[in-house]
User: What shape does this take?
Amino acid sequence: MKNSVKKSISTMQDESGNQLSIAGNWCNLRNSKRFRMKTLLKTITAVIGILLLSSAGLITQTSPWNAPKESDALVNPLKNNTASVEDGKKLYVQLCVVCHGDKGKGNGVAAAGLTPKPADHSGQKCQSQTDGAIYWKLTNGRPPMASYKTTLKDEQRWALVNYIRTLAAPDKKSKGSASK
Ligand code: HEC
Assistant: This one.
């Protein structure tokens, strides 16, 4: 293959000096160290790009989502504040039901098109986490779920945690709460 290319280039040289010098330059460049460096740099850039995308959750969206350990130590300032559950419910209906569903089962109207699927707030997997971890997750979000850090006040976010606790399936209630 390489030989045949070389041959055709040398033929071109005989016929048309101009064209050959373009083909010749291109060949030199391709074989030069500089070209290989460029290719290497492009490959490295592409790999870094893919890593950035996946760390943003755009590619590896199905990896488990774990709140950092420190979040377990966060103290719920509205613990046992039953009035806050009502506030949490209002916010939940306004902002969360569209994805998580009205019973928190992860089957809201927007859920079908999402990867990963919205979490089931009534299930063991969610309810076994501490208040702090749930608070941390709804504060920070993860695509396709938004962060509510700036759109909701601290108190509103804790009220949501308290409301999420009421969604627990009967046999899973209050397991793993930060303080019992
Ligand atoms: C655009 C759809 C969408 C909306 C709106 C949304 N979420 Fe989510 N939520 C998700 C998805 C998807 C996940 C799963 C993310 C993952 O596993 O990476 C999730 C996960 C969570 C989790 C983690 C549950 C667990 O078991 O670890 C909590 C807590 C949560 N959402 C709370 C909320 C609250 C509270 C609201 C409203 C203020 C809300 N979400 C609004 C899509 C949404």
About this structure: Residues 65, 91, 95-96, 98-100, 110, 114, 116, 118-119, 125-126, 134, 137-138, 142, 144-145, 148, 160 surround heme C (CB under 6 Å).
